[in-house]
Amino acid sequence: MGGSSISPGVELPDLPVEKFVLDNGLTLIVREDRSSPVVSLQGWCQTGSIHEGGWLGAGLSHILEHMLFKGTQARSSEEVVREIGVLGGQINAYTSFDRTVYYIDCPGESARGCLDVLMDVVARATVPAAEFAGEQEVIRREFAMGDDDPDRVASREMFATAFPTHPYGVPVIGYREVFDQLDRDDVLDYYSRRYAPNNLVFVVVGDVEPGPVRDQVAEFFETLPRRPLAPVFVPQEPQQLGRRDFFKAFPTPVTKLWLAWRIPGLTHPDMPALDVLATVLGDGRSSRLHCGVRERLGAVHRVDAFSYTPADGGLFAIGADLDPEKRGPAEVAILEEVGRLLDGGVGDDEIAKARRMALATQLGTLVTASGQASDLGGNWILARNLDFTRDYLRRIEVVDARAVEEVARRYLLDDSLSVVEVGPAKEVSAPAVAVSGRPPGRELFELDNGLRVVVEEDRRLPLLSMCAAFRAGLLAETAAES
Fold it and tell me: CA–CA separation, 452 vs 290, rounded Å?
């Protein structure tokens, strides 16, 4: 087996991969890997929560993920489960901002039968009415579980605070009030519009031959033509011009604190350096934040950093768990640690460690057929480059201390910082003015229906001023209203 050198003495597997595009626009990616007698089959629909258009916030992509297993033109939900079980396969799915993925892992000898089920589920689902109401209740329980989990609440509020305009600020599952307005016809309409063959990518990795797989897929989709695929308007997030703070009271003894800065998307040239920066600051017990803020100062129970980079721009985030009374000192300590990196730079040993960690993480994902399929699917969906992972690791290898310091200065700015706190109820207090420069006494609250209220205490005069602002105006008017 050939290899391609990424780091001295280390090679990434260089297995061949073939890509086919059918006449109806469907893309098929096949990698033959005979190292073990297993196969991973994945069906990727290039649609997620940000593509829901007029139903943004309803969770259409997520409920479809549930409903496609509930029956097709050829199989009932029980038959789908039974057939996969008999073939020795395991089936599941997930939904994200920009994709919905259905997958089956199975023995190589069962690949043909499992692929037939997977294609049937993805392309010929019926969304049966008898199953729809029951699955709505399942998702309502998901809403309730999410609302009871402080980590999920904190993550949700972090994205909402950093992305008030872009749909990344809307939870993938949606909002319960909007979800409750959906009916089966709305879901079927979304399915027919977004699950066109020309919006699907199938990935097959493992103990298979590419030719027969291509023939099987082509035969199945022979009667399913290309369909119109209207572009979905996704508003871009404008530049942030000042620090944002958000607090949500939650009955938990441990405060969840997030500090987040917006960064570019996955394919931007700065991403390798930003990933190295996240590793240096907050990945592992030897990272700067763990050693300084947790071990030396004892300001937090946990602290880490990561860069989240979908295609359309992402977040560089630092998260911490801490005692409520240490909220102010913890934020100051975290930002001081960031400041020390900006002022003192990064050591070569830290850069070398980050490179090793990136390579080890990627190699770990490529051990299994499922990991390889996910890697290939993500590379194509997000970057349109099947070799993106290899190219990315080569770019990681040339990241130096200067590049890391430059991206830190470019993106970790006070005016582009969003701070979210989820924890026990408290009295309104001034933030760390030395860090943010924000006037004391200002607080942002969000009601259950999404209405945001900003309150600023100012005792200099016995006056009260109120105003209301709405996201409307000329850009919101339709042609008939102009």
Answer: 34
Look-up: residue for tokens 């000042």? 242
Q: Is the dihedral of CA 282, 288, 289, 295 positive or negative?
A: positive
| Nearest-angstrom CA–CA distance, 10 and 421 | 42
Structure tokens at 153: 């609440």
Partner residues linked to 319 by β-bridges: 258, 304
What tens digit of pLDDT does each residue of 296-348 get?
A: 999 999 999 999 999 889 999 999 999 999 999 999 999 999 999 999 999 99
What are the beta bridge partners of residue 95? 100
Task: Render 110-161 in DSSP notation, one character per residue.
Answer: GHHHHHHHHHHHHHSB---HHHHHHHHHHHHHHHHHHHT-HHHHHHHHHHHH
Burial of 449 (0-12, 13-18, 19+ CB in 10 A): exposed
For residue range 129-180, what is the model confidence (pLDDT) as tens digits? Answer: 999 999 999 999 999 999 999 999 999 999 999 999 999 999 999 999 999 9
pTM of the entire structure? 0.86
| 257 close to 301: Cβ distance less than 8 angstroms | no
